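notes to self, project folder thing:

trying the whole complex as one job this time. last attempt i did each chain seperately and stitching them together was a nightmare. two parts in total, labels are on each line so i dont mix them up again. if this works i'll redo the older ones the same way
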Amino acid sequence: MSTTALLTTLQFAGVNALFALAIYASLWTGVLSLAPVFFGAVSAFTFGYVAGTLGLSPALALVVGLVLGAALGAVTAALIIRLDSHYLAMATIAMVLIGRVLIINLVEYTGGPSGTLVPGELGTWLWLIGSLVVAGYVMSRLSGSRFGLAADAVREDPAVAQTLAISPRRIQFVGFVISGALGGTAGVFQASFLQYIGPDTFYTHLGFVTLAAVVLGGAFHWAGPIVGAIVFTILPELLREPMGEYDRVVTGVALILIIIYMPRGLVDVRRLRLLRTRGRRRTPADEDPSRTGSTPATVEVAP
Amino acid sequence: MQLLAQQLVNGVALGSIYALFAVGFALILAKMGILNVAHGTFATGGALASYWLVFEHGFSFWVALAVGVVFAGALGVLADLVAFEPLRRRNAGVFAPIIASIGVWIVLLTLAEAFAGPSAVSYPAGSVPSEPLRFAGLIVLPAQVISLVALVVVVTAVHLLLTRTRFGAAVRAVAVDTRSATIVGVNSRNVLIAVAFMAAAIAGLAGVLGALSDNNVSATIGEALLLKGFAAVVVGGYGDIRGAALVGVAIGVLEVMSSQYISSGFRDAITFGVLLVVLVLRPQGLFGERQLVRA
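result (full assembly):
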C-alpha cells in the first residue's frame, strides 16, 4: 500500500472512530443503537445544502453538525428510549433505512439518487485530529464523572442502578444526546472527506462496520472504539491486495471470532489490570509456577 | 375497481413472500433470542442454489426449489454451530449474538456477491411455471399462487408443530429457559439446531419464491426481504408467528397500494414509518402478548 493510500485510509479511520465513539456513547448506557448513522446523514446533508446555498465556514459547519445531531438525539431518545433492548435496536435500524428513502426522495435538498457535492475544507488532518482529541478528552473526563459511573451501573444492571437512585431512562437519554452530537459531527467530517455524499454513504454498511469497530476495540472503555475503528478500517485495505473481493470475508470472520473469544475487545481494562497484577506477583519471593496459574480467578474485579 | 382488485391480488402475493420470511425471522427471534441480521443471506443462499441447479444443470424447478430450501436450512445450522452456539455456551449477553450475526451476514453476503456476480439474472424461460391464469378479469401469475399456498401451508404447519406436538413443547420450553428445559429431559442442543434449520429453510423458501416472482436472482435478494420481514415481525410481534405472517401480507398490500395511489418513491418510507409509529405506540407489537420480565 502506498503512503498516500495509507494516509487516506487513516483519515477515514479517524471519521469511523468518531462514528464508533457515537455508538459507544449509547452502548455505554446499555443501549445498542445504529442511530448515529442517521444523525450523521442528516447533519451531512444539511451541511451540504446550507454550504451549497448560503455558504458556511468550516467551524460553523462543525457546530451545526454537532448541535443538529444532539437535538436529533434528544428527540429520538424522547420517543424510543423506553423500548426493550431488541426493539430499540430495531427502531434505530429502521431509522437508518428510512433515512435512505428520504435522501432518495427529497431530491430538492439532497440531490436524490445522484447525491450531492460538499465542500471539503474540513477534510484536513488538523480538524480531524483536533475533533478526535476533544471527543476523546470529553469521553475520558466523563468516564470518571458521576454520569460515567451511573452509566456503568445502568449498563450492568438497570434494576440495581434504580435502587441506587439512578434513573436509567435519564442516563440513557443523556447517552443518546452525546451519541447524537458525536454522530452529527462525524457526518459532517465524512461529507468533507468524501466531498460527495449519496444515499448509500450513510447506510447499514457504515453502521455495521462502526459497530464492529466498537466491538473489536472494546465497548467498555472510551479508547476501544478509536482503536477498533483504526484497525477495522486499515485491515480490509491491507487485505484487499492478497484477498481480492474476499477481503470482507476476513472482516466478518474476525468479528465472529472476537465476539466469541475476546468479548471485551482489544482495549480491555480489566484484563490489563489483571496482567499487571500478575506481573507484580511474580516477584522472586513467591516464584511458584503452580500458583500463578490459579491467581487470575481471585484477582478478577469489575472495572 | 378492476385495478384495485388486481393490485390487491398483487399485494397479497408480494406480502406472502414477506410473511414467509417474517415467519422464519420471528422463529429465530422468539425461540432462540437472536436478532439475526444474517437471515436475509439465508434467503439469498436458497435462491442462488436453486438458480444454479436450474441454469447450470437443467434440473426441474421443483427439485431446485427443494434443494434450495434444504441448502438455506444447512446455512442456518452452520451459522448456528459456528457463531451462536459458542456464545450460548459462554452465556454472552443480549448484544453478542446480534454482533455475531452481523459477522455471518458480512461473510455470506460477500460470498453470495462473488458467486452471483454484479449482474442480475433470471431463471431461464420455460424452466419455471409462468403461464398466467385468468380469473374473473384478473391476471394471476403461477408464482403468486405458489407464494400464497406456500405461506398458508408453512404457517399452519409451523403453528401446529409449535402448539400441538411434543417437539413444539420442547421448543417452547427451550425458548423460556434452556437449562430448566434440559433438567426436564429436553435435548436443548438438538431442539435449537432443529429450530435454526427450520427458520433458515423457510427463509430459503421465501428467497426462491421471491426470485421466481420478480423473475430476478441476485445477491441482494435477501436484503430487501430482511427489511420487510423485520418490519413485519416488529409490527406483528414475534410471540405468535401468525401475527407476523398477517402483518407481512399487510405490508405487501400497503406497499403495492401506496405505490399505486400515493408515490412509488416513498413506498419504503411508508412501510418503515408505520413500523416506527407502531414501535413507539405499541412496543410489544400489534398482536404481541405482554411479557412479564423479572429484573
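what i see at first glance: Chain B has a mean pLDDT of 85.
need to look closer tmrw
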